[in-house]
Structure formats: structure tokens, C-alpha cells
Specification:
mainly alpha, Alpha-lytic protease prodomain-like, Alpha-Beta Plaits, 2 domains, three-stranded mixed β-sheet, 8 helices, elongated
Length: 299
């Protein structure tokens, strides 16, 4: 089984467990901040299910309907996850403000502290695993899922701190304020995640540093061509797509051109796995008298 699929399954299992535990703890303690964390984890569970589907489907090879593959499914997954997090944050604020206005009562703080501390530890371990797999496979969906869980760690620590303050001060309003602060952090997470997921859907170019590496790789073969231009790049999930025009000396044999194109493509893919390189080869038409036909031509 693919490593990405295994990691996505792990996320589903851990989120399912945390939703149940947090919900029970929130009901027992009456803490809106714990219930808000249960809501957040339920959204993370939906996100984990979407991530599982997307990483499984994105592996499929190109077909008659999807000539460029299925990589953008991961970007769609990340966009949906971002929208779900926005909804969750709004709901948490609504619940927190409602309890702040009408009051509430929290009991069994010890259970709440235990659940928040244990949940933070579980999410840290799982998110660390997801981040490692995401970095290895360059999976947008898994990186989004890992970011959710890592954010959960920080928000749960905020809830934990709020419960400690209630234990020390006896002020119930601290719980609602903690929940609102948690939602603000979630809003920030949702914005960055949505931006990262949507940009490839708009065929935004690869980061400048990646394009610089690609150009350096091409220039390593500069002795075999005249120049290259019209370099374009984009990304779909973990798949990169690059196309460019490669100018070769007039009279270059087709077998030599084929070898050069394949060699450049292999070098780029060695540096960036799952990269498709398309090159339009054209003969030099500058009419350089200093360059005999079939030899390197430069102006």
C-alpha cells in the first residue's frame, strides 16, 4: 500500500478517537472550549477522509478524460479543508459568545485537563508522521492534514491553559475567551491553507527558487544547445509540469536531439520526482557565420 494512503488512514483513526474522547469530556465538564475542540477535531476527521480519498485518487495514471493525470485532486482537497475550517471557526465563536452572554458551569476540570493534555500528545505524534510522509512524497493533501493536527496541538494547549486559569481563579468566562482565541488561530490556519491549495488550481508558476534550480540543470547541458526560452512551470498536487523551447544548432541529427531532450528531462526528474517535462525543439535561425552547421552556435 502507498505510504501516503497509510498515513491518511492513521489520521482517520486518530481523529475518530479524539472526536469521541473530546466530546465526552466536553459534555462531562460543560466546557465550551473542550466542545469547540471536539468540533474542530470532527472537521479534522472530515478533512482526513477527504485527504485519504484525494491521495488515493491522485495516484491514478492519466486516462482518456484526464490527460494530465489526477494531481489537482489534492489541491481541491486542500481547498475544501480550508472552507471546512472557516465554518468550524465561525461555529466555535458563536458557541463561545453565547455561553459568555448567558453564563455556564464547568465541572470535573481534572478530566478536561487530562483529555486536552493526552489529545495534544496524540496529535503531535500523528502530525509529525504526516509531515514526514508529506515532505517525502510532496503531498499537498497530507501536508494540509498534518497542519490541521499540528494546529490542534497549539489550540489544545491554549484550552489547557484556560482550564488551568479557571481552576486557579474560578472565573468561568475564561473558558469562552479561550475558545474565541482558539477560533482566531483556526482562522489564520484556514487562510494560509486555502491560499496554498488554491494557487496551483490557477496554474501559478513554481517558486522562483525551484525554477532557478531547473534552469541550472538545463544550463548544465549548454554545450549541446544554443539557448532555451519560454520556460513555463506549474504544479498539480505533487506533480510538476514544465515546458520550454530548446534551440539547437542547425543540422543537429534527430537522434542527438532525442538524447539531449531525454537527458535533460531525466536530470530534472531526478531532482524533482513526478515531473513531466515537455520541450519544443527548434533549429537556430540566427545565421551566425562563426558557427559551422552542426556545431555550437552562439551570438
Amino acid at each position: 500500500m502507498d505510504e501516503r494512503v497509510k498515513a491518511a488512514r492513521l489520521s482517520i483513526i486518530s481523529n475518530s478517537l479524539l472526536v469521541f474522547v473530546k466530546l465526552m469530556a466536553g459534555i462531562v465538564t460543560g466546557s465550551v472550549s473542550i466542545i469547540s475542540e471536539a468540533i474542530h477535531s470532527s472537521i479534522d476527521l472530515v478533512a482526513a477522509l477527504i485527504a485519504y480519498f484525494s491521495v488515493r485518487e491522485s495516484q491514478k495514471p492519466p486516462d482518456e478524460m484526464h490527460r494530465y493525470g489526477h494531481g489537482k485532486i489534492e489541491n481541491i482537497s486542500g481547498t475544501i479543508e480550508g472552507m471546512l475550517i472557516f465554518v468550524a471557526a465561525i461555529w466555535i465563536i458563536y458557541e463561545a459568545v453565547s455561553k459568555l452572554m448567558h453564563g455556564g458551569h464547568i465541572t470535573s476540570l481534572g478530566w478536561g485537563l487530562l483529555v486536552m493534555g493526552g489529545s495534544a500528545a496524540v496529535n503531535w505524534v500523528v502530525s509529525d508522521k504526516l509531515f514526514k510522509v508529506a515532505d517525502t512524497t510532496d503531498s499537498v493533501a497530507l501536508r494540509a492534514d498534518a497542519l490541521h493536527l499540528r494546529t490542534d496541538v497549539y489550540t489544545m494547549l491554549g484550552v489547557f491553559a484556560g482550564l488551568v486559569l479557571i481552576q486557579l481563579t474560578g472565573q468561568m468566562w475564561v473558558d469562552s475567551i479561550a475558545a474565541i482565541l482558539v477560533s482566531m488561530f483556526i482562522f489564520k490556519e484556514a487562510w494560509h491553507l486555502s491560499k496554498e491549495a488554491v494557487m496551483p488550481l490557477l496554474d501559478v508558476s513554481l517558486p522562483p527558487e525551484e525554477e532557478a534550480v531547473i534552469m541550472n540543470i538545463i544550463n548544465e547541458h549548454a554545450s549541446n544547445f544554443v539557448e532555451f526560452h519560454k520556460l513555463r512551470s506549474r504544479k498539480a498536487g505533487s506533480q510538476r509540469h514544465i515546458d520550454l523551447h530548446l534551440v539547437v544548432p542547425p543540422g543537429t541529427h534527430v537522434e542527438d536531439v532525442n538524447y539531449l531532450v531525454n537527458h535533460i528531462g531525466e536530470d530534472i526528474e531526478a531532482r524533482f520526482p513526478q515531473t513531466q517535462v515537455l520541450m519544443h525543439v527548434e533549429p537556430c535561425d540566427k545565421g551566425c557565420d562563426q558557427c559551422p552547421e552542426g556545431e555550437q552556435c552562439r551570438n
